[in-house]
Backbone:
């Protein structure tokens, strides 16, 4: 056993990690956001660019996080500190781990509120509480659901408690056992809904919406959307993947495992589109985005279709499972750190984190009702949690991970951990040193509203910038290492 390894529970097999990581990636946003963006930004043209972004941004950073986790065998904080010490670098790099762990926990604090909507709507679908004849009626039901702090708080609490019960049971008995039926169950329900959609009368329109190659609809905005979603969809820089990677068995191929997760995430998102949009088009509705589609338009469509209640229940069960698999991953980094460093049992660490989660998520929940007037710089507490994590912490964390792996750590350690061929390792190193950081910077400045670039007209300049940055980086790398990595 090497200095960087510690006795640590591992997934029973490679597929345990694949299912858990895919479950982390496939959340509520993926069910509606990726299919909608695909149709909005050019169908197959968007999917093609998205896949390029996945390979150039998402996969290299995800491979990095998994390698750091497995080599360091600990929470994001401990794993990065051990890797830095192994390379003779400052332990201060563990601040990246602190930011990742905090980011994941902060996301969960508002995510349980959103996840509570799916549980609430599952109950409404079962109990007949979604009776309405128009989108306005459904909007009123949605508003009433959020306006009641007791009801909304109860559903958010249910999500938090269920998450902690699963996480408290451990990696194998809790997380792996749960995702081993949640993810296949989700796919089976999607297949059933796709099968129905194929005979609903709206399947052809859905195929055109999602897969027609419409280059004219693909804009610079679409390219940035593809790039941003490729980064965020894989749960990068939130501590989840790095912690899950720390449980990965030594013999599992990081490259193949990462590609499997990326492909599975994309396929499930497209399957969600093929399940949702036929129902929307068959009922003469316009595809919308966000809560307007999932919580207003779809329930109305289910009422108008044969066996609509059954399919509505199936859909919201699937949505609830997607919410749970994501929420489980977001808290795992915190629980892992508490068990490793505070000598707490896993159950005690889970419930300790759960109490803090409940308090903060309650404040986020109140942003929709009694705390609607509590704002700071025009944002509610819920909005601030979303803004700080998605706009600042995740892009900065991803950039830090890429630079850490590309320029700071000893290349021999990561080469040994990744186990790639010389050509594949060289490609990964180029991506993680130059392509991924440049792309993440573009995502970051775009998220802050600072970027106005016409990619269609100016892509040659971006290629030139990448070439100059690569050359300058290679020339300056020895000096930078001496200056910043004593």
Residues:
């Amino acid at each position: 056993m090497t200095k960087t390894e510690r006795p640590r529970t591992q997934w029973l097999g490679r597929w345990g990690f694949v299912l858990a990581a895919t479950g982390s990636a496939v959340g509520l946003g993926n069910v509606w956001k990726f299919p909608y963006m695909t149709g909005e930004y050019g169908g197959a043209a968007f999917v093609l660019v998205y896949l390029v972004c996945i390979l150039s941004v998402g996969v290299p950073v995800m491979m990095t996080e998994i390698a750091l986790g497995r080599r360091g065998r600990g929470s994001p904080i401990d794993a990065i500190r051990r890797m830095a010490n192994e390379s003779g670098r400052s332990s201060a790099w563990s601040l990246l781990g602190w930011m990742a762990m905090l980011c994941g926990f902060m996301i969960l604090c508002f995510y349980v509120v959103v996840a509570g909507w799916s549980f609430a709507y599952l109950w409404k679908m079962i109990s007949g509480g979604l009776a309405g004849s128009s989108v306005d009626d459904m909007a009123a039901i949605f508003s009433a659901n959020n306006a009641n702090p007791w009801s909304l708080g109860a559903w958010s609490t249910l999500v938090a408690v269920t998450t902690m019960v699963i996480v408290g049971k451990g990696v194998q008995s809790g997380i792996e056992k749960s995702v081993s039926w949640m993810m296949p169950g989700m796919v089976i329900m999607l297949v059933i809904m796709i099968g129905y959609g194929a005979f609903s009368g709206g399947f052809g329109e859905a195929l055109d919406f999602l897969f027609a190659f419409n280059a004219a609809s693909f804009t610079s905005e679409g390219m940035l959307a593809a790039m941003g979603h490729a980064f965020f969809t894989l749960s990068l820089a939130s501590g989840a993947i790095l912690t899950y990677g720390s449980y990965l068995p030594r013999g599992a191929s990081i490259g193949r495992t990462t590609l499997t997760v990326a492909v599975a995430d994309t396929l499930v998102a497209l399957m969600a589109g093929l399940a949702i949009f036929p129902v929307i088009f068959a009922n003469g509705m316009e595809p919308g985005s966000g809560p307007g589609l999932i919580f207003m338009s779809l329930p109305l469509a289910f009422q108008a279709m044969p066996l609509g209640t059954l399919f509505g229940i199936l859909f919201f069960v699937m949505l609830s499972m997607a919410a749970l698999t994501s929420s489980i991953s977001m808290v795992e980094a915190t629980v892992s750190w508490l068990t490793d460093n505070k000598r707490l049992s896993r159950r005690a660490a889970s419930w300790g984190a759960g109490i803090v989660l409940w308090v903060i998520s309650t404040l986020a929940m109140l942003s929709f009702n009694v705390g609607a007037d509590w704002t700071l710089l025009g944002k509610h507490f819920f909005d601030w949690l979303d803004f700080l994590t998605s706009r600042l912490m995740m892009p900065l964390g991803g950039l830090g991970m890429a630079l850490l792996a590309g320029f700071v750590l000893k290349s021999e350690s990561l080469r040994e951990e990744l186990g790639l061929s010389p050509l594949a390792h060289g490609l990964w190193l180029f991506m993680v040193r130059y392509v991924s950081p440049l792309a993440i910077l573009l995502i970051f400045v775009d998220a802050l509203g600072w970027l106005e670039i016409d990619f269609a007209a100016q892509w040659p300049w971006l290629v030139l910038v990448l070439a100059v940055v690569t050359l300058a980086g290679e020339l300056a790398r020895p000096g930078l290492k001496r200056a910043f990595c004593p």
Summary: Residues 1-6 have pLDDT under 50 and may be disordered. The CA atoms of residues 87 and 412 lie 9 Å apart. Residues 308-341 form the longest helix (34 residues).
